[in-house]
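Hi V.,

Quick status before I head out on leave. The structure for the redesign project is tokenized and pasted below; the design run finished overnight.
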């Protein structure tokens, strides 16, 4: 590691056992761990003999400690005109009863439960109800179509599926019941029961045998939290990889709670009783960690926001929430800021609000361009902090830590290594590169607590994807560069994963869907730079003869129907040929270069170089 280590980072790397034992002691364990760090197949396992329960940490403990009347969660929904507040005591009651509903459905420790819900309080109640009894939840983002839901159902084989009548987007309602019915029809291992939160905005007719969320909760007896082993999986969260099949990231329990508690104070600089708002969705890792678990474990007030940065009703939406609820620290994706800047470039809607509570604004989920960051900093007059992490890690890897004595952010970089992470930038052969040279971002083992345990049902993919490429290190899949002062800039994925409006999507998966169209001979999907969304997918298709231009619409519809509207193709180009190597591999880098207006880097293995000129004319 060439970057300068501050004392905390240094200690966390040199004495990880001691460091994390101290952090873990801030939680109330049911069995205090003695076995702090062990290794299993080259990967770190934390607090093996400890026992703890996430729901108890998030709720019961605060009620027991006299904070039962503090507001735990605010549901703020501009799309329905609702603001509802839940104290810790009220939330605990709902969660304990919902755990009772799950028990009554035969859900036992270790059973999986899928949660396919919009941004409503019942999504968090369902998550906390699951972990209360040791059930493993898998939240599926409400923007995914039936096929994606079916793939996840079959991979984790849930006993119960929890859903709602639907979600409300800016200008339309998304009816979930037909999507869930279709997903169940497509799946080989359907859930035994389905529980539905019926919403006033929908006329819901429950299919036979499906249960109503509210009446089930009212009828249920509350259930106490059961202590589970620290390494017991708390959840599976599917994320996009480099193949067509999403991978189920498995999170532990005790390590996760320890890391989240640490991150709230050390990275976000938040104290118990303060208001922390992550404007994301429970379907993503940000929602798991920083809408639900971390703020509640820390005793903060969290916000479930059912709305957008713009159009609900305008580009001042976020600042209304900050003012009304006295948000101290906020977190969102750069795309959201770009969207509001486009509509309110002078920031007049920001100045209409009293934002004196706001101390820090965090951004993550995709690379933040410097003009966006500087614009927001000028508008808000508070530190705007870019930071880098992934579904796999569950909490930040690189950041400017606001809990440090003299935090100093640097626009353009994602910050410095967070305590626990020994980061190196290496070349193809695994050798550390010179400061200032771009390379692969890797993390030396052991990874700190909270990071993924494995991939559900697929330990081989876990090893092959993350551990074997650079032995002794975790491979992040991102490229980056470090400077003399230890600031790290993340330059983007080095694989076929793209990031669209902060949503991680696989171009390989889109290609598989596009290829199912009968008029297509071969295709490629690549990401190109987009001013608003960071990246957007583009499809290049070679069609069978006689196919008309209607195929462009059909292909896009196919992707929207199979994956979801968030994967909408920006454009479908019909081309004569795709550039390939002599062994028949499509040269996606060449396509990316041509589409992004760069001079293409043509490898010597190219089969026919004239294809590139042909493409330049066609695109
Ligand atoms: N359920 C159902 N559909 C959804 C959805 C959800 N939860 N979220 C998005 N969609 C749909 C949209 O309705 C839209 O459908 P359409 O093509 O039929 O109109 C499509 O998916 C694309 O949506 P989106 O990517 O949100 O683009 P947009 O142009 O509607 O909005 C932004 C642009 C910038 C306002 C929006 O992308 C945004 O809020 N981004 C921030 C994302 C974020 O916070 N990510 C968190 C990661 S940490
Ligand atoms: P996800 O797992 O959905 O959170 O997506 C993680 C990926 O998003 C990372 O591997 C990066 O490619 C990208 N990403 C997240 N945060 C940042 C950031 N601050 N800067 C650059 N890229 C980021």
């Amino acid at each position: 590691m060439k970057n300068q280590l501050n004392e905390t980072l240094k200690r966390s790397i040199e004495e990880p056992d001691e460091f994390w034992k101290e952090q873990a002691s801030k939680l109330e364990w049911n069995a205090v761990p003695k076995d702090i760090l062990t290794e299993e197949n080259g990967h770190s396992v934390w607090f093996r003999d400890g026992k703890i329960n996430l729901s108890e940490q998030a709720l019961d403990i605060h009620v027991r400690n006299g904070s039962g009347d503090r507001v735990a969660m605010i549901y703020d929904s501009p799309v329905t005109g609702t603001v509802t507040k839940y104290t810790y005591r009220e939330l605990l009651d709902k969660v304990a009863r919902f755990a009772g509903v799950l028990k009554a459905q035969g859900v036992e420790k270790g059973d999986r439960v899928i949660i396919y819900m919009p941004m409503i309080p019942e999504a968090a109640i369902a998550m906390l109800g699951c972990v209360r009894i040791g059930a493993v939840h898998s939240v599926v983002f409400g923007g995914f179509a039936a096929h994606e839901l079916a793939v996840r159902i079959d991979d984790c084989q849930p006993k119960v599926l929890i859903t709602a009548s639907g979600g409300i987007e800016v200008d339309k309602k998304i009816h979930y019941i037909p999507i869930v019915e279709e997903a169940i029809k497509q799946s080989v291992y359907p859930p035994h029961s389905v529980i539905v939160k019926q919403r006033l905005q929908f006329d819901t007719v429950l299919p036979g045998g499906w249960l109503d969320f509210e009446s089930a909760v009212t009828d249920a007896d509350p259930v106490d939290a059961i202590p589970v082993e620290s390494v017991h999986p708390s959840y599976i969260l599917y994320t996009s990889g480099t193949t067509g099949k999403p991978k189920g990231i498995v999170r532990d329990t005790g390590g996760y709670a320890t890391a989240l508690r640490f991150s709230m104070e050390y990275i976000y600089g938040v104290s118990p009783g303060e208001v922390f708002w992550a404007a994301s969705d429970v379907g993503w890792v940000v929602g798991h960690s920083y809408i639900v678990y971390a703020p509640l474990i820390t005793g903060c007030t969290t916000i479930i926001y059912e709305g957008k940065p713009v159009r609900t009703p305008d580009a001042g939406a976020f600042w209304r929430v900050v003012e009304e609820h006295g948000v101290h620290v906020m977190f969102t994706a750069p795309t959201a800021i770009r969207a509001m800047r486009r509509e309110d470039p002078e920031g007049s809607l920001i100045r209409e609000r009293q934002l004196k509570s706001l101390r820090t604004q965090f951004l993550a989920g995709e690379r933040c361009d410097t003009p966006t960051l500087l614009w927001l900093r000028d508008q808000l007059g508070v530190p705007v902090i870019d930071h880098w992490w992934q579904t796999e890690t569950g909490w930040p890897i690189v950041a400017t830590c606001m809990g440090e004595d003299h935090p100093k952010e640097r626009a353009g970089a994602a910050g410095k290594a967070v305590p626990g992470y020994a980061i190196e930038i290496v070349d193809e052969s695994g050798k550390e590169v010179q400061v200032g040279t771009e390379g692969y971002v890797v993390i030396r083992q052991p990874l700190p607590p909270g990071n993924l345990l494995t991939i559900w049902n697929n330990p081989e993919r876990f090893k092959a994807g993350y551990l074997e490429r650079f032995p002794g290190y975790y491979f992040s899949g991102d490229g980056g560069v470090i400077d003399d002062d230890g600031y790290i800039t993340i330059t983007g994925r080095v694989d076929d994963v793209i990031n669209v409006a902060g949503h991680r999507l696989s171009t390989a998966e889109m290609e598989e869907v596009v290829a199912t169209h009968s008029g297509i001979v071969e295709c490629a999907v690549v990401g190109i730079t987009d001013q608003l969304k960071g990246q957007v997918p583009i499809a290049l298709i070679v069609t069978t003869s006689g196919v008309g231009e209607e195929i462009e619409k059909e292909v896009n519809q196919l992707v929207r129907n199979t994956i979801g509207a968030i994967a909408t193709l920006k454009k479908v180009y019909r081309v004569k040929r795709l550039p390939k190597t002599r062994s028949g591999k499509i040269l996606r880098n060449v396509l990316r270069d041509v589409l992004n207006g760069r001079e293409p880097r043509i490898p010597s293995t190219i089969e026919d170089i004239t294809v590139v000129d042909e493409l330049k004319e066609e695109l």
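Above is the designed sequence. The domain at 519-618 is CATH 3.30.300.30 (GMP Synthetase; Chain A, domain 3).

G. will cover questions while I'm gone.

Best,
W.
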